[in-house]
Amino acid sequence: MRIDILTLFPEMFEGVLGSSILGKAREKGIVEYHVTNFREYSESKHGTVDDTPYGGGGGMVLKPEPIFRAVEAVTAEAKPRVILMCPQGRPYQQKLAEELAQEEHLVFICGHYEGYDERIRQYLVTDEISIGDYVLTGGELAAMVVIDSVVRLRPGALGNQVSAVEDSFSTGLLEHPHYTRPPEFRGWKVPDILLSGHHANIVRWRLKESLRRTKERRPDLLEKIEWDKDKEMQKLL
Ligand code: ADE
């Protein structure tokens, strides 16, 4: 998979793309990251990328030329998804992460401070994504969130593939509690059932705990579950 990131602050990505699972995925050849400063595609001598808004008002607006030229430079023949990070976008959820993880090429456009000239949205971008109802100083942190959640879903990116399948949200439920050694810590014990070695009972306990936790913390998620298919699960609720 190839991921292009267009930003005015390429240095923001260095640590994130080089560390942990994202860094390992690059080393394993699962993903290539290309970070481009779109100021290089400015048509002006001074590298101008923004201008005052037509109609007046405060703030600056990102000009279309540098962003169109930067996207065209990285997309030569192919037509990848071109994703604009902005608070007005589609709310980001695991389902969209799973969809984006199927693509072979993604391009992220990250603006800072300013608004975007509307022609970027209309004629260049295929997806607008928001990571939540709050305003960041720029799209970079939001793009990192999306990239992190997509790359970990690529085959081979996680050491243990089971962990992606059992994630909260991909099962539709929050995860059950986890424990490791020691069996007793400061008087707090690991539930006996997990030490019992009885696999079927453990599976049942985990499902029950997942349901309990989901009901307690995110009852809205339970409404989305197809209970017809999951009668066994409903009985545990
Ligand atoms: N840029 C600024 N705020 C954002 C948000 N909430 N999501 C995505 N991009 C953004």
UniProtKB/TrEMBL annotation:
Coiled coil: none annotated. GO terms for biological process: tRNA N1-guanine methylation. InterPro entries: Alpha/beta_knot_MTases (IPR029028), tRNA_m1G_MeTrfase_C_sf (IPR023148), tRNA_m1G_MeTrfase_TrmD (IPR002649), tRNA_m1G_MTases_N (IPR029026), tRNA_MeTrfase_TRMD/TRM10 (IPR016009). It is an enzyme of class 2 (transferase). Keywords: Cytoplasm, Methyltransferase, S-adenosyl-L-methionine, Transferase, tRNA processing. One of its GO terms (cellular component) is cytosol. It comes from the Bacteria. It catalyses: guanosine(37) in tRNA + S-adenosyl-L-methionine = N(1)-methylguanosine(37) in tRNA + S-adenosyl-L-homocysteine + H(+). The keyword Chaperone does not apply. GO terms for molecular function: tRNA (guanine(37)-N1)-methyltransferase activity. Its EC number is 2.1.1.228. Residues 1-224 form the tRNA methyltransferase TRMD/TRM10-type domain. It is found in: Cytoplasm. Belongs to the RNA methyltransferase TrmD family. Homodimer. This is tRNA (guanine-N(1)-)-methyltransferase. The gene is trmD.
